[in-house]
């Protein structure tokens, strides 16, 4: 990875970290009204939109591209990531944590692990597909 790519990946991680915090906080709020599995999906959509706007402006400089087509491609990449996030979050909460007896903030920890899981694949998906020049 070149220095430019390294800086871009670092910026992607900062934006992703910000979106992850938004994701976790909104999931906690949604969990007050709906079941965990649905709250994970709803929070993901909110965080994905925030991530799109931040990535477009600060990471991939996609401001010259067509916003609608970029958002559609961003959503496609993120639908694939959502499947991974959901499987890791729910699988960890429902299967792994009970098997090891883990209970401390289990929903939040499982969700955080899920949110972190697609970082590398999402970076390359957005770099070479979503915001391609």
What does this structure look like?
With 133 residues, this protein is mainly α. It has helices at 3-30, 36-59, 67-100, 106-116, 119-130. The relative contact order is 0.14. The model has no long low-confidence stretch (mean pLDDT 92). The longest helix has 34 residues, at 67-100. It contains 5 helices and no strands. Helix 1 packs antiparallel against helix 2 (36-59), helix 3 crosses helix 4 (106-116) and helix 3 packs antiparallel against helix 5 (119-130).
In short:
The chain is mainly alpha-helical and 133 residues long.
Could you list some keywords that capture this structure?
133 residues; mainly alpha; 82% helix
| Low-pLDDT runs | none
Q: Quick check: average pLDDT?
A: 92
Distance between the termini: 19 Å
The overall strand count is 0
Count of helical stretches: 5
Please render the helix and strand layout as text.
Layout: H1 3-30, H2 36-59, H3 67-100, H4 106-116, H5 119-130
Helix pairs in contact: 1-2, 1-4, 2-3, 3-4, 3-5
């Amino acid at each position: 990875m070149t220095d430019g790519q390294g800086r871009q990946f670092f910026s992607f991680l900062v934006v992703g970290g910000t979106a992850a915090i938004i994701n976790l906080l909104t999931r906690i709020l949604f969990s007050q009204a709906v079941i965990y599995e649905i709250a994970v999906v709803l929070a993901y959509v909110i965080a994905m939109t925030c991530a799109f706007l931040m990535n477009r402006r600060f990471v991939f400089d996609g401001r010259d591209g067509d916003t609608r087509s970029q958002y559609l491609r961003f959503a496609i990449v993120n639908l694939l990531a959502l499947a991974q996030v959901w499987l890791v979050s729910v699988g960890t909460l429902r299967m792994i944590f009970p098997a090891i007896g883990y209970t401390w903030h289990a929903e939040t920890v499982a969700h955080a692990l899920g949110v972190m899981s697609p970082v590398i694949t999402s970076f390359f998906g957005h770099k070479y597909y979503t915001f391609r020049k």
